[in-house]
């Protein structure tokens, strides 16, 4: 397209093609509707998605943590306990959560590594000793101190007695 200054003298305005092109572009610009964005709705949906994602993740973490704690509780079967506990030591630990709720955990028959992992989750220290009895599986828990009905809080030390065989 040529500029009006570069036209030969005597030509006023645009050539028919140039004029038609300019009119077509102006019609296009004036006729095209600008998109209408609902910015408040977009922000609201983004916040809702974010809140839902955070709630889902928090729920998954709580369920995973609670599931781990529940999995550590003996579910009523005596398959993990020693055949006979002639020592008279109690193996049930009563853990107190930060909100005051308590959870009994029967550690009878657990091995030292399982106890160590559970203590890490509960943020409790463990001291381990072995006692000789002939009625238990070597390396399994035959007693904890303090035991139920005494409670154990975060940071406490629990003495664990393992079967020496």
Automatic annotation (TrEMBL):
The keyword Membrane applies. The chain crosses the membrane at residues 53-73. Keywords: Membrane, Transmembrane, Transmembrane helix. This is PASTA domain-containing protein. It comes from Streptomyces violaceusniger.
């Amino acid at each position: 397209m040529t500029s009006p200054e570069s036209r030969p003298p005597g030509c006023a305005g645009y050539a028919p093609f140039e004029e038609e092109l300019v009119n077509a572009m102006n019609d296009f610009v004036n006729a095209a509707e600008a998109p209408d964005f609902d910015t408040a709705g977009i922000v609201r949906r983004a916040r809702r998605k974010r809140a839902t994602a955070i709630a889902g993740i928090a729920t998954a973490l709580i369920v995973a943590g609670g599931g781990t704690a529940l999995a550590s509780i003996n579910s009523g079967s005596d398959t993990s306990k020693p055949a006979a506990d002639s020592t008279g030591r109690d193996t049930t630990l009563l853990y107190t959560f930060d909100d005051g709720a308590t959870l009994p955990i029967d550690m009878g028959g657990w091995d030292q590594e399982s106890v160590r992992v559970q203590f890490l989750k509960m943020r409790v220290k463990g001291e381990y000793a072995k006692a000789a009895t002939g009625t238990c599986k070597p390396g399994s828990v035959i007693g904890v101190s303090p035991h139920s009905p005494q409670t154990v809080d975060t940071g406490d030390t629990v003495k664990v007695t393992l079967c020496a065989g």
